[in-house]
Amino acid sequence: MELLKKRILQDGIVIGNRILKVDSFLNHQMDINLFNEMGKEFRNRFKHKNITKILTVEASGIGIACIAAQHFDNIPVIFAKKYNATNLDKDTYEAEVYSFTKEKTYKIRVSKKYINNEDRVLIIDDFLASGSAALGLIDIVRQSGAEASGIGIVIEKSFQGGRKMIEECGVELQSLAIIDSMENNTVNFK
Amino acid sequence: MELLKKRILQDGIVIGNRILKVDSFLNHQMDINLFNEMGKEFRNRFKHKNITKILTVEASGIGIACIAAQHFDNIPVIFAKKYNATNLDKDTYEAEVYSFTKEKTYKIRVSKKYINNEDRVLIIDDFLASGSAALGLIDIVRQSGAEASGIGIVIEKSFQGGRKMIEECGVELQSLAIIDSMENNTVNFK
Questions:
Q1: Which InterPro entries does the record cross-reference, listed alphabetically (chains A, B) (predicted)?
Q2: Which residue among B15, B33, B78 sits closest to A28, beta carbon to beta carbon?
């Protein structure tokens, strides 16, 4: 997606050769015009899947998923919870995830009420690195009996191996920008 | 807002006499059609304020704020971070918040890059209870030199005192549904 790649080159900041900071438009401050263009692109790539629900994980995926849902006939969005809250059901699907940016493992949870075996679920997230969050979300979808119909990622860092993990699960992966390397503070797209 | 009140009566679950579970449409599964109606209503109530940015706090506020921004000419949305991440700037505005649902105190942070003294900021959140999160967000806006132009809340629990705290700060508060009590598992609106 050219608009997104341009924005990454313009405003992204490479730290070391593994972290890309895009907090000016993607995951701290959020550019709603850009999110709508991303939503249209996800729609174009997954329109053949008859998606019934979008699943993401807090926090950075939520805004992207909500705006994208408008391009899928306003289907419901569910976000997996990373932190226990007194208002979360006891009866949940759970999976373990390792966060690359936070450097720790935690559980993600989705109430059993909101995904069922008639759903075709599109998973959306801001980044794909090692694939741990995406695998956890696929796991949760499959526990519910629903179909994991696809994964839509905004920025894939292909050098961290997530794509292979997801393709081994047999789930279609579509990334709007794929970064092959970030050597010498320079982003190189696929 | 009648549509929202109807939905709370239809799908909200009262736990004890202080917790209202609305995770089927507001803060776990999210009803994007309802969010757009809420966004229009926020626009109607704050259109005289010439808002330049929307500020919320992760995680439940993000979807509401992103959809609402579309009714304010797609202005940027910033979400305050509750948890430290390696991709957050070191240079942040900070405030302390007590979470009613999570029963603990934590810091919220916003990078100094994304709010400045020319901004007129609308704060949006899903719930107002004791007002601690809203006060923390007002504090952050004022640290930046920006104007805290208003607070838009989806559900205010008036019996927990948040309104008084905010009005003492001199910030306009607009809540789409105001609950006066939840005795005997029944929601009573103002």
A1: PRTase-like (IPR029057), PRTase_dom (IPR000836), Pur/Pyrimidine_PRTase (IPR050118), Xanthine_PRibTrfase (IPR010079)
A2: B78
Domain that holds residue B180: 2-189
CATH code at position B133? 3.40.50.2020
Residue A89's pLDDT is 80
Q: How confident is the model at residue A84 (pLDDT cuts 50, 70, 90)?
A: confident
Q: How many domains is chain B built from?
A: 1
- Give which of B3, B52, B9, B58 is closest to B31, Cα–Cα: B3
Burial of B5 (0-12, 13-18, 19+ CB in 10 A): middle
In 3D, which of A32, A43, A103, A182 has the Cα closest to residue B66?
A32
Across B18-141, the runs of DSSP E, i.e. the strands, are 19-21, 29-30, 53-57, 77-80, 92-99, 104-111, 120-128
Whether A67 and A89 have beta carbons less than 8 Å apart is answered as no
Quick one: closest CA in A to B101, which residue? A86
Tokens of A88: 């979360």
A38 pLDDT higher than 90 = yes
